[in-house]
Structure prediction request, 145 residues.
Amino acid sequence: MTDALPEQLVRLPVQVSLRLGEGTDSFIRRLAQANHLKPSYLRGCLVGPPDYGRGKRPRADRLAAVTGRRQDVLERVLADLVRQKRARPAPDKPKRRVTSSADKPALFTAIRRDVQAVSAAVAKSRCAASRVQADGHRNSRCMAV
Prediction:
């Protein structure tokens, strides 16, 4: 019967310096290269079970164990080690207003009035355009349209 591998991580022999504001992936890549490891292998170890997969976030406690540094120091120095809560941005546009049934007849009347005003303006401009075109070519308005 085989026993499961121990979960205890050992500190890596070669340490790299921390850079303020550096990304976690960059730090892991530098740490792996300094210790002659593949960055993907070290990242998988830092993500830990059961995930081990790509795209998963390395755990801060496992990174602290491997580097020999305190977890709170790593969280403060590495920009994206822990997920920050997003501050809710101020809404740029007003919230959607729902029209009640009582307001709808007035709304429909306003829409009809606006459509009639626009269509009258369009008809007037067409008439003027056809007059100009007919006069320019010495044709009747019926031919110009």
Observations:
- The helical segments are 24-34, 39-47, 60-67, 71-77, 104-137, 141-144.
- Residues 1-5 have pLDDT under 50 and may be disordered.
